Every structure is written in C-alpha cells, then in structure tokens.
Amino acid sequence: VCLNSDDYYLDTKAVELEVMRLEEAEADACYANTKCIDGVTGKELSHWRGVDTFYPPFGEIPNHQTFMIKKSVMQELLLYNLNYQVSADSHFIYKMVASNKKFVFLDKEIVVYRLGGYSGQHPEIVFQNQEDAFYEVFAKKLALTRADIMLLAHISDIDSDF
C-alpha cells in the first residue's frame, strides 16, 4: 500500500475493499479515486477519477496513494528505485505496465491526499524524474528517442490545430 504519511483513507474499509477487488479480478494491483486537498488550508481542490484517465503507457497514471500492489509483484520487479527522488512510485507503475501486470480499478473515492509536500514544491524535479522513468522503461520497448519522450510529455502543450 502506497499511502503517504500526511494522507488518509476516507473509509475505514478501504483496504478491505481493495483486497476484495484484487481477489475478485485476480489482478496484480488495484487503484481507486482520490480527493485532493490543500495541505495548509484543508480546502478541497479536486477529485481524481481513475477510470477516465489510466491508459498505459501514455495516459495519466493513477494516484499512487490509492495503489495496493501484490507483494509478489513488488518482489518480482525489485521494489522501488530510490534513484528517482520523487517519482519512484511512477517508475514502479511504469515497470508494472511494461511487464503486462493486470490492474483493476475500484470505483470509489477512498483516499484524501494533500498537496504541498516536497513534490509540490519542486515540480521540475517531479517532471524530470517522471520523464527519465518513462524513458528508462519504455524507450527500447517502443523504439522511442529522448526527443520522442519530450514530445509525448508536452503533447498537451501542442496546439490542437497542429
């Protein structure tokens, strides 16, 4: 389970619900919806719905705070690579996608996560770590260059008329 120290479950049965969903789907990892709040004020900022955005490898990856991953998968894929200062979780998710692990979605908001921690204060490091992780895991598999990765990372910046 990847819950950060300042985040919390909305439901006392969240872990149980994820375990049941993992078992019924015979999946390797489960993720769910989240609510984001300001880390200082507690003000609600957004809701993240995983079913709408997780299209690996190019879609948005789920909020790691909701992830439950089988221990056997963690061992097989050699745990987190801590060289990724703030994106070891993203790197691991990319490795699971590249290894064809089965993900299952629990359509329930189970976690509140707070913005404002280290990654929120250093978005440039997060972006670079995620770009590096994506390149490491998918570049050879998809025959992509570093320039291709940069283009994909900035695809939303490109004018839709282009």
What key phrases describe this protein's structure?
alpha+beta; 20% strand; 5 strands; 5-stranded mixed sheet; 6 helices; globular; disordered C terminus; 162 residues
Give the secondary structure arrangement, pairings included.
Blueprint: E1 8-9, H1 14-25, E2 29-38, E3 44-48, E4 68-69, H2 71-76, H3 88-98, E5 103-115, H4 118-121, H5 123-142, H6 146-153
Parallel strand pairs: 2-5
Antiparallel strand pairs: 1-5, 2-3, 2-4
Helix pairs in contact: 3-5, 5-6
Explained architecture:
By secondary structure, this protein is an alpha+beta fold. Helices cover 38% and strands 20% of the residues. The chain is built from 6 helices and 5 strands, in the order βαβββααβααα. The protein has helices at residues 14-25, 71-76, 88-98, 118-121, 123-142, 146-153; strands at residues 8-9, 29-38, 44-48, 68-69, 103-115. Strands 1, 2, 3, 4 and 5 form a 5-stranded mixed beta sheet that branches. Strand 2 (29-38) and strand 3 form a beta hairpin. The longest helix has 20 residues, at 123-142. It is globular, with a radius of gyration of 16 Å. The model is unreliable at 156-162 (pLDDT under 50).
